[in-house]
Structures are given as structure tokens and as C-alpha cells.
Specification:
It is built from ten helices and no strands. The protein is mainly alpha-helical.
């Protein structure tokens, strides 16, 4: 479980995945580092993860024929730090706006799997099992 204070989740995202900065700045019409510490951004965590991380950074990499392993490593390092966060708000945002999106976008679980870390993999297996989705090599029964 993460000891990271909830209000530091978005600054951690910017530090871990600076490729998200332009999307922060555009969404909040201010410099990304200021946006990441704004109360509105944390309250909008679900939307921020979707609009500044998952849709513009993570998913395009997973859809590439040859993704950037260094970038994906940093993305999944970030997710690993917060996937089991003590705050339900943070855990829910990761579940719905990152992990569940892997199923909605053409089942990118297989592309993400080799880059995921232990806690993210465990959470993904639980998600797949709860939806009744079986993927050979991931949650084969």
C-alpha cells in the first residue's frame, strides 16, 4: 500500500511521466506544475488521469507496433505507486481510468502486461476475473 499522500498523486504523475505536462497545461490553462497541485485537479482525479495520462500517453504507446519500453516502464511505475493507495478516491481513479480502459480499448491488457509491475498485475487479474474475461497467459483458469 502506498504511503504517498493523496494530494501528491498528480505531482508524482508529472514527475514520473513528464509527457503528461502538456495535457495538464491545456486542461487547466496554467503551467502543468501549478495545475498538478491545484485542489480542482485532485478533485477531478478521474478525469485528469483519463485526459492527461491514459488517453494521450499510455494508450497510444500500447497501441504502437513497437512501444517505447522506457516510457511504458515509467507509466507503470507511476501506476504501481498508487494502485493500492489507501484513498478510495485514488484507487477508484486508477481502476476505472487506467486498468479498466485496457479492456475498453480493444483489450490492451496483453500489450500492457509485460510492462506492469506486481500490484498492477494482481489488480488487473482481479478485474479480469470479476468481468469473466479469460486471457491465456494472464489469468488462465
Amino acid at each position: 500500500m502506498s504511503d504517498l499522500p493523496a494530494e501528491e498523486v498528480l505531482p508524482l504523475l508529472l514527475h514520473s511521466v513528464p509527457e503528461s505536462a502538456a495535457f495538464f497545461a491545456e486542461k487547466y490553462q496554467m503551467p502543468a506544475d501549478s495545475a498538478a497541485v491545484a485542489r480542482d485537479a485532485f478533485l477531478d482525479l478521474y478525469e485528469v488521469l483519463a485526459a492527461c495520462f491514459t488517453a494521450p500517453v499510455l494508450m497510444p504507446q500500447l497501441e504502437r507496433p513497437i512501444p517505447d519500453p522506457e516510457l511504458l516502464g515509467r507509466c507503470w511505475d507511476f501506476v504501481e505507486r498508487i494502485v493500492d493507495h489507501p484513498s478510495q478516491h485514488v484507487r477508484g481513479a486508477v481502476y476505472f481510468e487506467v486498468l479498466e480502459q485496457l479492456l475498453h480499448e480493444g483489450c490492451l491488457v496483453e500489450a500492457a502486461w509485460p510492462h506492469m509491475k506486481d500490484r498492477a498485475q494482481a489488480r488487473t487479474v482481479k478485474m479480469l476475473d470479476s468481468y469473466g474475461v479469460v486471457l491465456p497467459g494472464i489469468n488462465r483458469r
